[in-house]
Amino acid sequence: MLRRCLLRQCRFMGVRSHTLMLCKVPTSTDEPAQNSKPKPKKVKPPPRVKAVPATPTSRAAGFLSLGVKLGVSAATQIIGSKLGMTDANAPKLTPGSLESLVTTLCNMRGCALKLGQLLSMQDQEIIPKGVLIALERVRDSASIMPESQLKSVLVSELGQNWQDKFSTFEMVPIASASIGQVHRAKLAGSDKEVAVKVQYPGVADSIDSDVDNLLRLFKVPMLKPPPGLFIENVLRELRRELKEEVDYEIEAGKLQKFKELLEAETSGADDPNIGKLSDFFSVPSYIPELSTKKVLTVEYVRGIPVDQLEEKGVDQEIRDRVGLKLMQLTLSELFRWRFMQTDPNFTNFLYNAQKNKVHLVDFGACRQYSDEFVNNYYNIVHSAKNEDAEGVLEYSKRIKMLKGTEVDIMREAHVGSVFAIGVPFRDEAGIHDYREHNISKQISSKVRTMLKHREQAPPTEVYSLHRRLSGLFMVLSRLGARFDSRPLIAEAWQGYKPGE
Asked: Do 322 and 479 contact (CB within 8 A), yes or no?
């Protein structure tokens, strides 16, 4: 089953990276959206307290235990098929082995949990419903550090008197994920609310060994991915990203750069149907004196993840507006700033109904793209917009997504998947219904062909970019957003010329 989960990644040949959002708050603390219809609140079980394995040896033991359990399950199924007791298909993840996988990922955290979360935001077109539900537990149910381990990190990073810096500090985190967990606090003296992200001990030092252990796990039959996924390249890029993300001083710099780009952006200001980005989006300020390489303190913000707006009864008009602005932001990041927050986790985009704004959080996965890469990518999307198959193929070769020697069925699948991206931008497009004409589903229909016939791994930039685009199209579908994307692409492409 997990192998089927991995098939999704070829849709854009991207890795979905889910780092810790800075300010996720329980939706029960949010003000209800205007014109919204109240729905019953879901009660979450309390988080599990489990010490993070902090040494390479203890982490290797966790991977080994999981590998043994999955290996025994696979062997049992193979023997059963030989005896005619089970079907003769490849070994599958049983409920018991799936439970072992989820529990191990939640307890290990770090690189292992990040890869599990990578799979958790897929749709049921690719992942069976039962597997999807289990993987959602991975995304939402990471174990939390015991208080003694938490205090040890805070003392190490902020000093023995760290508690004097806060008037209140909630020891139970409001969010926990792959790299660390977030606590709500108030600053001493001002009582200003802040979110304090605290990194799990040992995560930064275990990235290399975690990746090596994951590669060994993928040799287990039921987890073995198809060759066209190029899992070694996926994990190599995951390793590179994690080594940046575990340095919160780097993330603080990315947060500040994103904030400055957002506030300086003027595109859309002259069109009342679009508007400035900074009128709708905001980036929290960070507190330098309470931030280190392993602790990041930022302004606390409230909101609900954008994918939950329909579930919360938010009106279509508001959902359309949120969708339009998310598209405007994504196009600006890629084509105007060439600097993109590439983690599409829905909890990184928090809608605040009172302010009618989306708060953006978690900037560890921001990436700068080169002029050459963005120019080539512009030509790919421009060709897709104009249904120019030869243009798509030529610029895909230039960007090294294709070799140029692929068989016809692979070329057709690649062109078809890229054409799907260009549909909302075509001259005759008008208002595009992102649920009825689901771009993610159109691309996913080409996945198996591309996995079978892909000849080379894409460039590393494509992993992060397509991760974000995949998340964008998914959230637009979940919102049921309907809007005209043509003015947005026209604004983003100002100054570009085809063929350059």
From this structure: yes
* Cβ-based neighbour number of residue 194 at 10 Å: 23
Residue 331 CB: number of other CB atoms within 10 A? 21
**26 DSSP assignment:** -
CB neighbours (10 Å) of residue 379?
Answer: 23
Q: Which residues contact 75 (CB under 8 A, 6 or more apart)?
A: none
Tokens of 202: 């040992």
* Catalytic hit among 320, 343, 362, 388: 343
Q: Which two tokens stand for residue 288?
A: 């330098």
Task: Report whether 286 contacts 301 (CB < 8 A).
Answer: no
The structure tokens listed for 247 are 């340095």
Which residues fall within 8 angstroms of residue 479, CB to CB, at 6 or more apart?
Answer: 306, 307, 309, 310, 319, 320, 322, 323, 434, 435
Residue 360, SS3 per DSSP: strand
Residue 169 φ/ψ, nearest 5 degrees: -150, 115
pTM here is 0.81
**How many CB atoms within 10 Å of residue 461?**
21
Residue 259, beta-bridge partner list: none
Instruction: State the Cα–Cα distance between residues 34 and 285, nearest whole angstrom.
Output: 27
State the Cα–Cα distance between residues 161 and 352, nearest whole angstrom: 35
Core vs surface per residue 419-446: b (16+ CB within 10 A) or e:
bbbbbbbbeebeebebeeebbbbbbbeb
Known catalytic residue at 343? yes
Contacts of 57 (CB under 8 A, 6+ apart): none
Q: How far apart are the first and last CA of the chain?
A: 44
**In what helix (H) or strand (E) does residue 195 lie, and over which residues does it extend?**
strand 193-199
Residue length of the chain? 500
- The closest of 179, 134, 128 to 153, measured between CA atoms, is 179
Going residue by residue through the chain, which has 500 residues, state the pLDDT in tens, using 9 for 90 and above: 444 444 443 443 333 333 333 333 333 334 444 444 444 555 555 666 766 665 666 666 666 555 555 554 544 444 444 444 445 455 565 666 666 666 666 666 566 666 655 554 444 444 445 455 555 665 555 678 899 999 999 999 999 999 999 999 999 999 877 788 999 999 999 989 999 999 998 888 888 887 887 787 777 666 677 788 888 888 888 889 889 999 999 999 999 999 999 999 999 999 999 999 999 999 999 999 999 999 999 999 999 999 999 999 999 999 999 999 999 999 999 999 999 999 888 889 999 999 999 999 999 999 999 999 999 999 999 999 999 999 999 999 999 999 999 999 999 999 999 999 999 999 998 999 999 999 988 988 888 888 889 999 999 999 899 989 999 999 999 999 999 999 999 999 998 988 77
CB contact at 8 A, 358 and 352: yes
Max intra-chain CA distance, the chain:
72
